[in-house]
Amino acid sequence: MKKSLLALLSGAALSVATVAFISIPITAQEASVEAYALTKRQKENVNLLIDRGLAGNGAYELLESLTTEIGPRLAGSDAEARARQWGVEKLKFLGFKNVRIETFEIPYWARVVEEASIVAPFAQKLEVTALGNSVATPTEGITAEIVRFETLSDLIEAPMTGFEDKIIFVDEIMTRTQDGSGYGWAVAKRSGAAREAGRRNALAAVIRSVGTDRDRRSPHTGNMGYTDGIKKVPTAALSNPDADQLTRALAYAKKNKSGPVTMRLRVEVTTKEKTLSGNVVGEIPGKTDEIVVVGGHLDSWDLGTGAIDDGAGVAITTTAAKLVGDLKEKPTRTIRVVLWGSEEVGLFGARAYAQAHKDELSKHVFAAESDFGAGKIWQLQTRFGPKSAGKAITMARYLRRIGVGPGGNEARGGPDVSPLRAAGVPVVTAQQNGWDYFDLHHTPEDTLDKVSPEDLSQNVAAYAALIYMASEMEGDFRD
């Protein structure tokens, strides 16, 4: 999920093959770049797949089944295990071959109790959620004075003493953007607030939720991490309206000289050192052993039912691959759908897949993940080698009829394909409209009613066309 974008940007080491990719315009404005020529039959199939994708294709029903029969799917939980079995049954029913679960182990964390309130001078309850991986407070909770910082940078620049008996509050607001680019810096406060509060020996940290909504008292969870050697403090997120309320309380108390604002925070969690998770894999065998990989992540946070994050991605890519498999002609390349496990808590499934398939990564010719909700796709981004610019142009041309414009050649591909991208596998990003994605992200509001069947079908149409072209275009996209 998008949730680990900052870590991906800063932590993923690029291989020599990845560094070799250069920025290629995806438009045909440069006379030196010619579009890849599809055969007449290939053109007909691309348009047929788009038509079938836009029509009733079963994606919404698949998403409805996952979110209703399984519901929230916290990584490592019994619910995630049921989701894996659901995935196996659905892939087999839809005609995929070589369906299996590839297991791996993860550390387990789950919330038990989360409470927050202003104790004085304006006593009232606040809506809060523990951040994933947070340690617990003492059973009775922590009651202490709140110290507010407008941004994480302000906290980083603050003195190292004077916070020993305080709760630190980072109030940084996230910027709303269509492409979700405001998330990368906003999410830094999850781990950053915990780390900086621990360095200052504070009692706990709370943050304004990493989200763009301002009218729902729905706090946003998400994973955070600690730094070895630094005190681990309980860390939680306030809903955005409650962060506003706490900020007003601090201002009123200061103006009226009402004394310090004190908060009570109580967090209880349960953990296990190791538990089982896994990726669900299914294939449409091709004529060759080259592989086109698509998918979404099967796990979700536990507050909502994971409809947009990332049940939608599971439904979109599975249905799109099935449409390609339903064509009369067998695909040239094998199409592999991967329903990644344990994405939300640290890309465990992504890394496990890359490790398990390291000996065949050279045969992975193309990879993409749908993990940005269910909004309409508006732009195609690629990450192809210089000699494959014409293929990118052709892909973009065929998606124009459904409102998808051309983008650049520096695609990320999605969180779960980041290890593949780092190993040199070409990727694409079918960029969705994420204007309201972070209103819902990691909250109780992430439910099926937020998904438009029409938008979902447009996604299926785009992915079906992309999967087919990736399977049928001659040559390696690395070139």
The largest sheet is: 11 strands, mixed
The secondary-structure class comes to: alpha/beta
The whole-angstrom Rg is 23 Å
* Global morphology: elongated
Number of distinct helices: 15
- Which fold name corresponds to the CATH topology of the largest domain? Aminopeptidase
Low-confidence stretches: 2-31
Order of helices and strands: HHHHHEEEEHEHHEEHEEHEHEEHEHEHH
Could you explain how this protein is built, in words?
With 479 residues, the chain is of the alpha/beta class. It folds into two domains: 2-107 and 273-472, Aminopeptidase; 109-272, 3-Layer(bba) Sandwich (Glucose Oxidase, domain 1). Helices cover 33% and strands 23% of the residues. The protein has 15 helices and 14 strands. Strands 1, 2, 3, 4, 5, 6, 7, 8, 9, 10 and 11 form an eleven-stranded mixed beta sheet that branches. A three-stranded mixed beta sheet has the order 13-12-14, covered by helices on one side. Helix 3 (40-54) runs antiparallel to helix 15. Mean pLDDT is 94; it is low at 2-31.
Pick out its properties:
Glucose Oxidase, domain 1; eleven-stranded mixed sheet; alpha/beta; three-stranded mixed sheet; 479 residues; Aminopeptidase; 2 domains; disordered N terminus; single chain
Quick take:
By secondary structure, the protein is α/β, with parallel strands linked by helices. The protein is 33% helix and 23% strand.
What's the layout of helices and strands?
Layout: H1 5-11, H2 16-19, H3 40-54, H4 59-70, H5 78-93, E1 97-120, E2 124-126, E3 128-130, E4 142-149, H6 152-156, E5 166-170, H7 183-186, H8 188-199, E6 204-208, E7 235-238, H9 240-256, E8 262-284, E9 291-297, H10 307-325, E10 334-340, H11 348-356, E11 364-369, E12 377-383, H12 389-399, E13 405-406, H13 418-422, E14 427-432, H14 437-440, H15 453-472
Parallel strand pairs: 4-5, 5-6, 6-7, 9-10, 9-11, 12-13
Antiparallel strand pairs: 1-2, 1-8, 3-7, 4-8, 8-10, 12-14
Helix pairs in contact: 3-15, 4-10, 10-15
